[in-house]
């Protein structure tokens, strides 16, 4: 296959093993249009990332696993869309701590000796997923709760109450605890509080507590001194200290280990932290906003969460409503995402059919806004014309909860509601109701019988 006219993809490779290691990868990947660039340190890698579009980086961890554990968590936080592929020896991955680290920070790993096809497959897949990650990151940062120009999209009473609460909480430095199901936009609610506060020009540091590497939690949150543990080649500032004078957002706070909960409680009480391996305390002024989708009160009773920390965090509670509780917001958000994704995919803007809109209003949306976003994106791809219909949106129904209705059931409800509405608007005139529904009189009579309705 000819590569003429195709653009090469930049692939920085960080290795401490000298030019021979990079040259081996260059021979393998070069024929697949990878422009392999040798980098000698994390700082050098940062400079390469600033110069051009890089979606994937290759990290050679042979003999460098412990060193990477000291710098990679902070680096990954700064580059959330960059996909990392690791070169490791098989024996390294068999260590439990190493395996947890690899799982937390790398898209894929390749064992040495390098198998050319395995490596090129990993790099190609990582490149594709980096594009998806960029789109998802934009969605999460700007649209998960419908943020547009700093405003929350949606005029339901539930969202109006959220707006009012955010404005009240923005004027105080007290801790906020955000509760709500997964996919309701808890992080963007936290960002909204930060943007409306006096700390808006200072850092907003978001930490997913559920994604922290178990043996590095203390180091990632509170930092460490040089030589604090094997691989700690230099001092590292933790996320708490990085949020000085700003806001620290702790997502999935219920996943923090109990020993780390103790350290966090000490910070909330005294406003001081101590880096791992350090002897002195450091004053940090950071507002804490925590979020969880679990019942922390129940976690306290189960012994999984400290009661004193819970009361320290639950000063200003904020409940994010499920999408099903946001009356009327579904269509506004769906149209918002439809326009957004059409523009991103470079296709002409589409619209939803009336039947699809009625079904979306009836569906319970167990996955909340994330599910809505994914279904709309799928609908754009599947729609053959300018209209997105219900089959274009439909995916496998969620059967994990008896209270969750399927889209087929939602369609039945939507049909019944649409027919009832049309009959009422037509003054119970069958001909006019059929015209409004764009069906024949015969079809309307059949549907009325099917759904047990009456024209009277």
Number of helices: 20
CATH topology of the largest domain: Rossmann fold
Low-pLDDT windows of residues: 1-6, 136-150, 395-403
Approximately how much helix is present in the residues?
40-55%
Mean pLDDT: 83
Number of domains: 3
Summarize the structure in short.
This protein is α/β, with parallel strands linked by helices and 456 residues long. 48% of the residues lie in helices and 14% in strands.
Could you explain how this protein is built, in words?
This protein has 456 residues and is of the alpha/beta class. The protein has three domains: 9-140, Rossmann fold, CATH 3.40.50.2300; 152-321, Rossmann fold, CATH 3.40.50.300; 325-450, Helicase, Ruva Protein, domain 3 (Orthogonal Bundle). Helices cover 48% and strands 14% of the residues. The protein has 20 helices and 16 strands. It has helices at residues 19-30, 42-51, 65-78, 90-93, 96-105, 116-142, 157-170, 186-195, 217-222, 239-242, 258-270, 296-301, 307-313, 329-345, 354-362, 368-382, 390-393, 407-425, 430-437, 441-450, and strands spanning 9-14, 34-39, 56-60, 83-89, 108-112, 147-148, 151-152, 176-179, 204-208, 247-251, 272-273, 282-283, 287-292, 316-319, 351-352, 387-388. The chain is globular. The N and C termini lie far apart (70 Å). Mean pLDDT is 83; it is low at 1-6, 136-150 and 395-403.
Keywords:
single chain; Rossmann fold; 456 residues; 5-stranded parallel β-sheet; 16 strands; 20 helices; disordered N terminus; Helicase, Ruva Protein, domain 3; alpha/beta
């Amino acid at each position: 296959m000819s590569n003429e006219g195709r653009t090469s993809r930049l692939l920085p490779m960080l290795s401490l093993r000298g030019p021979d290691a990079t040259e081996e990868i260059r021979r393998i990947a070069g024929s697949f249009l990878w422009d392999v660039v040798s980098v000698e340190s994390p700082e050098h890698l940062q400079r390469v990332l600033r110069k051009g579009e890089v979606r994937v980086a290759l990290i050679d961890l042979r003999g460098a696993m412990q060193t990477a554990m000291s710098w990679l968590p902070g680096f990954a936080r700064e580059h959330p869309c960059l996909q990392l592929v690791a070169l490791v020896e098989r024996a390294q991955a068999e260590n439990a701590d190493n395996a947890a680290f690899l799982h937390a920070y790398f898209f894929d790993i390749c064992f040495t000796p390098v198998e050319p096809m395995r490596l090129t497959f990993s790099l190609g897949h990582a490149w594709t997923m980096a594009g998806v990650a960029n789109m998802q990151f934009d969605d999460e940062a700007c649209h998960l709760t419908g943020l547009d120009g700093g405003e929350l999209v949606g005029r339901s009473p539930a969202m109006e109450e959220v707006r009012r609460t955010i404005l009240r909480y923005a004027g105080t430095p007290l801790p906020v605890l955000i509760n709500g199901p997964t996919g309701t936009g808890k992080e963007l609610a936290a960002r909204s509080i930060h943007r409306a506060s006096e700390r808006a020009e200072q850092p907003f540091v978001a930490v997913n507590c559920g994604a922290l590497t178990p043996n590095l939690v203390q180091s990632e949150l509170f930092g460490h001194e040089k030589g604090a543990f094997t691989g700690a080649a230099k001092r590292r500032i933790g996320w708490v200290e990085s949020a000085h004078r700003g806001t620290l957002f702790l997502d999935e706070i219920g996943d923090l280990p109990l020993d780390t909960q103790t350290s966090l409680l000490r910070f909330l009480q005294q406003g001081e932290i101590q880096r791992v391996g350090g002897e002195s305390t450091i004053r940090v002024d950071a507002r804490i906003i925590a979020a969880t989708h679990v019942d922390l009160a129940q976690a306290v009773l189960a012994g999984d969460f400290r009661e004193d920390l819970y009361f320290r965090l639950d000063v200003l509670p904020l409940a994010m409503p499920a999408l099903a509780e946001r009356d009327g917001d579904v269509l506004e958000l769906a149209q918002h995402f439809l326009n957004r994704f059409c523009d991103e995919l470079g296709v002409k803007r589409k619209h939803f059919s009336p039947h699809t809109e009625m079904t979306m209003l009836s569906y319970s949306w167990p996955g909340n806004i994330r599910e809505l976003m994914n279904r709309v994106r799928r609908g754009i791809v599947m729609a053959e014309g300018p209209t997105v219909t219900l089959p274009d949106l439909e995916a496998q129904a969620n059967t994990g909860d008896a209270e969750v209705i399927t889209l087929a059931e939602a369609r039945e409800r939507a049909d019944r509601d649409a027919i009832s509405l049309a009959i009422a608007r037509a003054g119970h005139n069958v001909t006019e109701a059929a015209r409004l529904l764009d069906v024949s009189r015969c079809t309307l009579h059949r549907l009325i019988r099917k759904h047990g309705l009456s024209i009277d």
